[in-house]
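User: Okay, second chain of the day. Same drill as before: sequence in, structure tokens out.
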Amino acid sequence: MKTVPTYSLYGVNSSEPLLDQLHFESIASRSQLYEWEIKPHRHERFLQILYIHGGSGEALLDGRRERLASGSLITVPPHHVHGFMFAPDVDGIIVTMTDSYLRTLLAGVPGTLTLFEHPRHDDVGHHHALASALTMFRNEMESVAPWRGASLSALLTLVLVGIARIAEASAPAKAQASSRPARHFRQFQQLLETDYRVQKDI
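Assistant: Same drill. Structure tokens below.
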């Protein structure tokens, strides 16, 4: 059985960590190095967001194939196998962040982390508010303006909230109703992990 490789960024050994909590680049900049094919792989502790502004391609997400077109938004959490084939005219961005950075950005938005546990493919047309946020993120990403880091964090939080809203709206009603206690328990676990060195009473 063929082993699925684990990378930091595609083609970069997983033992070489990201230099920063956040990495972003155009889809073309990396995929053209591999003749527009990103073979199936996974990431140990990184969430990736891919958005296609124009062009086309195909995604492999946990064994299922999805056609990609302008407006396609892919979200891939850690440990999930994914791969891509892009047309040479593809125009888009890919954002990679550590899972700890994801938790930091969503710390003030309770109940959203569980919405990023499974790969997603959403159609986010150019008229959608989330598409506007993604375009603003890309413009900031390509700029050298003052306070760029703070602006990118704010815009990325806006993007993550937009993805969470789509995921929440598409979840079955039963799952939405039953997820609240589970979310509380997971939040409690995260608090324990964050402050496990601190002795606290009940």
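The chain has five helices and ten strands.

User: Thanks, on to the next one.
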